[in-house]
Amino acid sequence: MSQQKQSKEDYGALLARIRKARPESAGPSEDRLKLPAPQTMVSGKKTFWLNYMEFPSLLRRDPNDFLNYFRSQLAINASIENGRAIFMGRPDKQSFAALVQRYLKERVICPVCGSPDTRLEKNKQVLSLVCEACGARSAVK
Ligand SMILES: [Zn+2]
Question: What whole-number distance in Å separates Cα of residue 58 and Cα of residue 79?
């Protein structure tokens, strides 16, 4: 019994050491963005994304631009109605969460400093990610 307790304490101490050793900046800044899981519901031939509006609001993106990303990535039409996004198709449930992550990587997180405090700027059809933390301007694919 005492042996078990001992190993538990060791494990706790080890975890504390690992946490201490990890520099602040190495942590993924996505941690700072507490995004909910996309709640979707299929009805007939449509998919309803019920908590859609939380995403562009948390990411400080235009709801229509955000929707356009999904529309083009999933290659299906979609619209926003009463705060929900309605997709004219039945994409894999997992693809919404995966695309949110991809969107974060491509269009939110600054590739230079990892800050999520960024904005998108469009200039002559060229989309750039401008970081409000470090000022970096990165091309968006
Ligand atoms: Zn930055």
Answer: 19
Locate the domains of the chain by residue range: 30-108, 110-141
Instruction: Report the separation in Å between the CA atom of 30 and the middle of ligand 1, taken as the mean of its atom positions.
Output: 13
Q: 36 C-alpha vs ligand 1 centroid, how far in Å?
A: 24
Query: pTM score, two decimals?
Result: 0.75
Residue 100: which of 130, 128, 58 has the closest Cα? 58
94 alpha-carbon distance from chain centroid: 14
pLDDT digits (tens, 9 = 90+) for 55-103: 999 999 999 999 999 999 999 999 999 999 999 999 998 999 999 999 9
Instruction: For the chain, give percent helix, strand, coil, nearest 5.
Output: 45, 20, 35
Is there a contact between 87 and 43 (Cβ–Cβ < 8 Å)? no
Q: Which residues neighbour ligand 1 (ion) by CB within 5 Å?
A: 110, 112-113, 115, 131, 133-134, 136
Q: What is the CATH number of domain 30-108?
A: 3.30.30.170
